[in-house]
Amino acid sequence: MSTTYLRRPRKALGQHWLVDSRYLSRIVSAADIGPDETVIEVGAGNGALTAPLARQAARLVAVEIDERLAQRLQERFVSQPHVTVVSADVLNLTAQDLLARGGAAPPYVVVGNLPFFIGTAVVRHFLRSEPPPPRLVVTVQAEVAESMAAERGRMTYLSVEVQLFARARLAFFIPPRAFRPPPKVRSAVVRLDVLPSPAVAVDDPDTFLRFVQAGFAAPRKQLRNSLAIGLGEEAGAVESVLAGAGIERSRRPQTLSLEEWAALYRSYRQTAEGLRQ
Known about the structure:
With 277 residues, the protein is an alpha/beta fold. It folds into two domains: 11-194, Rossmann fold (3-Layer(aba) Sandwich); 205-271, Helicase, Ruva Protein, domain 3 (Orthogonal Bundle), CATH 1.10.8.100. The chain contains eleven helices and nine strands. Strand 3 (59-64), helix 3 (67-76) and strand 4 form a beta-alpha-beta unit. The chain is elongated.
């Protein structure tokens, strides 16, 4: 069973309309929207998801970068004063900006079918926003969703980055046939429940993430070599850092858990501090 859509999607904006009402309903259900909650919808598009969200949310701020689509959405929802359509690039606005435009206040939930080319950037944007939402439920490329929710053994830099700030769960996959036009890649819905504080104790999350990114500089190599490349350090110095964290040098970056990355980072900071003294 499918919904209708308003106009031909624009490839330049990565527009693929989710038109299967079964998956639209599952997204709304996964978001667990309470009757008093505000929703920020990213990439409102043709309004197929906007309509069921509007039936659930106390206030809805629908963000759409395509001005023509935004105008049609405003006309469609003009009789629903709790729905505000914002025509803008969501990455150029803070959460506070969006809430203010909708006459809303925190807490808020982020929901959306995200264009593949900005999906990760949107998630990062809201995970680091002030205030962050208690949860995000978004459709992204399946491989991206799997990376966000990956367990030890399949971790990527994105896994560590997302799981530092949120509990990630891959909710379900969406086949290409559910979209118009069908994308060439699979899609999946991921739910991110934002943590009240970072999942591991590190002195500075940004510095920690730069260290982890260095560790994934050559992910197919052993951690000893990958970290040396990323940090621009001699292999011997890196071996001392690994030993300080109790981590075998032969392991590969994807095998480390978030806790082990934190232990390795603390060992690196301690080693660097010792060299300065």
